[in-house]
């Protein structure tokens, strides 16, 4: 009987361990992979996200550029500010038009993080080294992240409008990165905000197969629970019969 109880406990633990990953897959939030067909090609979630991110960038980097021109005493920071104003004035006009054409809602105000960065720049004393450092580092970090994202969308999009706009965005963002770095105020030892580059896979290299666990409609959670319960019952009955048979043999002997 002790062996029977031990076997039952072990089965429950094993079944729970197998069930938990499946449960996480089954009840997780679905990813929005909706693709809308347009006359310029398919418009997927990444393309829509690109338009939103570029619009958000303009909503805070345009005002930041104005601050660089007005608050800094460093001609290089002032020049970076002018590049930001010109670049985002153009990108904003384009993205607003694209949003209308592709029916993509766009934000009208900077997000919480961006508002915080603007407050940092506002709080830093005009003409100070502190302002120049906050200015250059916040903007360089943000542009680096956006540039990586733009390159990923550009590489994969099948929409000609998005592809053309991504080209314009990447040229503009690279220009901004360049002028910000020319200020000499960017702290490249800050690997949190400016991560160190990693080695990319070799061209033509075979991709490592990704094994994904999924619960399809024919293997829903209730069905998994029922099957697991049946397996436990069958195993316990089998063990009871086996132990009972051995006991009878010992008694007869």
Structural class: mainly alpha
Major beta-sheet overview: 2 strands, antiparallel
Mean pLDDT: 81
Order of helices and strands: HEEHHHHHH
Give me the Rg, rounded: 30 Å
Gap from first CA to last CA: 21 Å
Indicate the percent of residues in helices: 55-70%
What is the number of strand segments? 2
Residue share in β-strands:
under 5%
Order of strands, widest sheet? 1-2
Q: How many helices in DSSP terms?
A: 7
The residue ranges in which pLDDT falls below 50 over 5 or more consecutive positions are: 11-32, 207-218
What sort of overall outline do the alpha carbons produce when their principal axes are compared? elongated
Describe the structure.
It comes from Umezawaea endophytica. Pfam families: DUF4142. This protein is mostly helical and about 250 residues long. The protein has helices at about 1-25, 45-70, 75-100, 110-125, 130-155, 160-180, 220-250; strands at about 35-40, 40-45. About 70% of the residues lie in helices and about 0% in strands. It has a two-stranded antiparallel sheet with strand order 1-2. Helix 4 runs antiparallel to helix 5 (about 130-155). The longest helix is centred in the C-terminal third of the chain and has 32 residues, at about 220-250. It is elongated. Mean pLDDT is about 80; it is low at about 10-30 and about 205-220.
């Amino acid at each position: 009987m002790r062996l029977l109880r031990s076997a039952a406990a072990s089965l429950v633990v094993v079944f729970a361990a197998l069930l938990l990953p499946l449960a996480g897959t089954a009840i997780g939030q679905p990813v929005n992979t909706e693709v809308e067909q347009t006359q310029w090609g398919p418009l997927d979630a990444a393309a829509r996200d690109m338009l939103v991110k570029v619009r958000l960038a303009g909503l805070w980097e345009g005002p930041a550029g104005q601050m660089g021109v007005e608050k800094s005493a460093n001609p290089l920071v002032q020049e970076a500010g002018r590049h930001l104003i010109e670049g985002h004035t153009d990108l904003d006009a384009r993205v607003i038009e694209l949003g209308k054409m592709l029916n993509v809602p766009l934000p009208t105000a900077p997000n919480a993080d961006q508002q915080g960065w603007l407050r940092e720049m506002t709080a830093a004393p005009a003409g100070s080294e502190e302002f120049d450092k906050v200015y250059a580092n916040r903007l360089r970090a943000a542009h680096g992240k956006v540039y990586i994202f733009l390159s990923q969308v550009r590489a994969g999009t099948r929409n000609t409008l998005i592809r053309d706009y991504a080209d314009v965005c990447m040229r503009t963002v690279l220009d901004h990165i360049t002028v910000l770095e020319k200020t000499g105020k960017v702290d490249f030892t800050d690997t949190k905000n400016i991560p160190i580059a990693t080695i990319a896979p070799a061209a033509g290299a075979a991709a490592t197969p990704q094994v994904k666990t999924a619960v399809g409609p024919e293997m829903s959670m209730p069905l998994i629970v029922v099957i697991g319960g049946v397996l436990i019952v069958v195993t316990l009955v089998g063990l009871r019969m086996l132990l009972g048979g051995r006991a009878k043999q010992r008694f007869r002997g």
